[in-house]
Amino acid sequence: MIVEENLDDRPCDRSPFAFALICGGRSERMAEVGDKAFLPWPPPQGPPLYEVQLAKLATIEENESLTFLSCRADQAHQFVGSGARVVLDGAVDRGPLAGLASCLREAKDAGMEALLVIPVDLPLLRTSILDQLLDSRTPLAHRGVVARIDRRWQPLVGIYPTELLDEAERRLETGELRLTDFVDWALENDHIVAHDFGTEAQTAFQNLNTPVDYAAAAAQLGSAGLKIERHSKSPEWDRQEIHDEVAAEEPLELRVEGKSVAVVMRTPGHDEELAAGFLLTEGIANKREDFFEISQCPSVEDDARGNVIDVLLGGDAKSRDLDQLTRHVFTSSSCGICGKATIDSVFQCFAPVSVGPKLSRDLLLELPHRLRRAQKNFRRTGGLHASALFDAESGELLLLREDVGRHNALDKVVGHAVLNDMTPLENAVLLLSGRISFELMQKALAAGIPIVAGISAPSSLAVNFARESGQTLIGFLRDETFNVYAGEDRLK
Question: Which residues are catalytic?
Answer without folding.
Answer: 335
